[in-house]
Write a structure and sequence with these properties.
Blueprint lengths: L4 H12 L22 E3 L2 E4 L2 E3 L1 E6 L14 H14 L3 E4 L9 H9 L3 E5 L12 H4 L2 H14 L5 E8 L12 H17 L7 E6 L5 H8 L10 E6 L12 H8 L6 E6 L10 H5 L8 E6 L12 E3 L6 E3 L1 H12 L40 H6 L26 H4 L11 H26 L1
Parallel strand pairs: 4-5, 4-11, 5-6, 6-7, 7-8, 8-9, 9-10, 10-11
Antiparallel strand pairs: 1-2, 2-3, 12-13
Helix pairs in contact: 1-13, 2-3, 5-6
Length: 448
């Protein structure tokens, strides 16, 4: 069958050109009070030359399954931010946001009180499914992740992004999800770099599972710079009105000495035997500050799990302070932020990857390649976020990773040199292929 020149050109262009999203325009929020940005140096956080410790609270009104965004509801956030100021916290963690909505007023209200945000980029509909990580690591998921980055990168008080929370836990085979969490971390860092956004630290919030805690930490800090986390956090409820030795926190300090990245507690606050929050004394002491950069108490609102320190009446939005409110505020006041460098290390470094075994079922050389269909978001921006509409976990049609892992392609990258990311190189290779197809078709046309 013969083709006309115009048909051949159209066919070639169809191969070479793929639909692209509307370019993302990065604009600063229209209203905000700027705070000094927090950066990573050595194994600590800093605002300029001052060491920064996280002294915060976890904030998810309605609970983990509510699918609500407290930073998009001005009435709710301003009510609660006033209480955060009374507590004396300098940071809050929010577990999910609607990336299709505006957050200027709430982020400005946080900044006005000197409060930073630690933000999870996932939500129940757009996240890695630990039971099927390959299918859930897809282009639709990454578009939502990138859109969340776009929505919050312009705020000076966005402190860190969490690439995942307790994806790896104590259930069998969940360590197999680790490469996908690491891939998301890489993709987030590369997106921030490619879109020329402020380099907000990206890292993982781990479950405190003794059997895989150290392997998880080591895995998130091994390999090339572009796949390594910028920090490591874990949820720890082992301090139950005890002390640093009985809680085993002293041993964890030893285990993480010379880890090479900032470490903090993304959740703490044991319920057993009451809560006096004396762990803040330990966190701010020289026994821990050389390794730890503080932590976030779980949590603000009282939900079914009974961890909260306030009750909120849904009918009139009044806040009822529980005993924990005064106890937490008192502990923050009694044990202020440590001064000086706190013994922080001066350099950041990687560690050796953990070896594969019966518990840690991960080949350290394999990190999944970014789905090729997500390259358009990497290049042109995520576009409009999907919010809580739809879902990505089963959206394999949007595009999944072209391989289960390839250390040569997926673990080389920026290294601080300005070289484009693995995802970007993958996209460039696609254009090389497209150009080759175009040339081949043109050559065939001329020969007709």
């Amino acid at each position: 069958m013969k083709f006309s020149t115009s048909a051949a050109l159209a066919s070639a262009l169809a191969v070479a050109v793929t639909a692209k999203p509307t370019p993302t325009e990065h604009e600063p929020p229209s209203k905000r009070a700027d705070l000094p940005t927090v950066t990573v140096s050595g194994n600590a956080f800093w605002t300029g030359s001052d060491r920064f410790y996280i002294r915060g609270i976890d904030y998810q009104p309605g609970g983990a399954s509510a699918e609500t965004d407290p930073l998009a509801d001005t009435e709710v956030c301003k009510r609660d931010i006033a209480e955060f100021a009374k507590l004396g916290v300098n940071s809050v963690r929010v577990y999910m946001v609607d990336n299709s909505l505006n957050h200027d007023e709430c982020m400005d209200a946080l900044a006005a009180e000197g409060i930073y945000l630690l933000l999870d980029v996932n939500n129940p509909k757009y996240s890695i499914n630990r039971a099927d990580p390959f299918s859930s690591y897809n282009a639709a998921y990454l578009q939502s992740v990138f859109a969340t980055i776009d929505a919050f990168a312009g705020y000076s008080n966005t402190l860190v992004f969490f690439s995942g929370n307790e994806v790896i836990n104590d259930e069998a085979n969940t360590t197999q999800a680790a490469p996908y969490v690491k891939a998301v971390t890489r993709d987030m860092k590369n997106y921030i770099n490619k879109q020329k956004l402020r380099k907000i630290p990206v890292g993982y919030s781990a479950a405190d599972v003794a059997e895989n805690r150290m392997q998880t930490a080591e895995y998130m800090n091994c390999g090339a710079d572009d796949v390594r986390s910028d920090f490591f956090a874990f949820n720890d409820y082992s301090w139950c009105n005890t002390d640093i030795q009985i809680s085993d926190w002293d041993q964890k300090v030893k285990n993480f000495t010379d880890y090479g990245l900032p470490i903090f507690l993304s959740e703490y606050g044991c319920l057993k035997n009451g809560r006096d929050f004396n762990e803040i004394e330990a966190l701010m002491s020289d026994e821990m500050t050389s390794v730890y950069s503080g932590g976030l108490m779980y949590e603000y609102t009282y939900e079914e799990n009974k961890f909260g320190i306030v009750k909120v009446d849904g009918s009139d939005s009044k806040v009822e302070k529980l005993d924990g409110f005064a106890k937490f505020s008192s502990a923050l006041s009694k044990y202020p932020m440590a001064t000086g460098s706190g013994g922080a290390a001066s350099s950041t470094h990687s560690v050796a990857c953990p070896t594969k075994d019966s518990i840690w079922e991960v080949d350290p050389s394999e990190v999944p390649l970014m789905p090729t269909q997500a390259q358009k978001y990497m290049d042109d921006g995520a576009g409009d976020g999907p919010g809580f509409v739809g879902g990505s976990q089963a959206d394999t049609d949007s595009g999944t990773s072209p391989s289960n892992g390839d250390s040569n392609e997926s673990t080389s990258g920026d290294n601080g040199s300005g070289d484009d990311s693995a995802g970007v190189r993958l996209g460039e290779s696609l254009w090389v292929v497209s150009a080759a197809v175009l040339a081949s078709v043109l050559a065939g046309t001329l020969a007709l």
